[in-house]
Amino acid sequence: PHPSRSDHGRRDQAMSDENVQTDAAEETAPEPVVTLPGDEVLDPIVATHPTVVAVPTRHGHLLSVDPEDLVSVVAAARDGGYRMFVDYCGVDHLRRRPRFEVVLNVIDIGRGQRLEVHVAVGSEDPTLPSLTGVFPGANFYEREIFDLFGINFTGHPDLTRILLPDDWEGHPLRKDYAVGSVPVQFKEAHKAP
Q1: From 6, 102, 138, 179, which residue has the greatest number of CB atoms within 10 Å?
Q2: What is the rounded CA–CA span in Å between residue 148 and residue 164?
Q3: ∠ at Cα 83 (88, 90), nearest 5°?
């Protein structure tokens, strides 16, 4: 018999509860252990960037990267076969610190592998290095992230608004942006019957 969807969450919770340490002396975090993902392209990247965390996914890997390692990690992945630039987007985790995250998706067509690169960015002066030198197609994506989230990209050739007027105030995809505060004028609203 297959568990119902509602049982799935409880089963996962029960499985994770078995691994919980109850001894207060053992609750300190262990020293991080670098685990290589077992991938010919990603192993050297993880080995030479000690802060990179690799997690296997259904169709490839997810790398969590520090901002200062972003360009070198992405360039190494591209040189290793991840040459298809797919997407680059921003995320606002309003109540989490660091608040912002930028996610890059690239594909190694020859191996049929996807790579997600996640970079956390703080809310005070959110800045990342530009990837336009690695993937020229990142140009408009970085402009969109800048325009809608307010994340700056150092070294970008033309970091200007791409969707909103130049005099627009704020960044509308931030979760604390005042949505609906502009009164809407409907076409037929003021006509007398």
Answers
A1: 102
A2: 8
A3: 5
Q: Which two tokens stand for residue 98?
A: 């660091």
pLDDT in tens, 3-24: 433 443 433 333 333 443 434 4
Q: If DSSP codes are grouped into helix, strand and coil, which group holds residue 113?
A: strand
Domain-embedded: residue 169: no
Q: Higher model confidence: residue 143 or residue 179? A: 143
Q: Please check whether residue 159 lies inside any domain of the structure.
A: no
User: What integer pLDDT is reported at residue 11 of this predicted model?
Assistant: 35
Task: Give yes or no for residue 28 having a pLDDT over 50.
Answer: no
* DSSP letters spanning 57-111: ETTEEEEEE-GGGHHHHHHHHHHTT--EEEEEEEEE-TTSSS-EEEEEEEEETTT
Q: Which pLDDT tens digit goes with each residue over 39-51?
A: 899 999 999 999 9
Strand, helix or coil for residue 115: strand
- The model's pTM: 0.75
Provide the CATH number for the domain around residue 49.
3.30.460.80
Q: CA triplet 71, 76, 86: central angle to 5 degrees?
A: 75
- Cis before 98 (ω within 30): yes
Task: Domain count for the chain, please give it.
Answer: 1
CB 118 within 8 A of CB 66: no
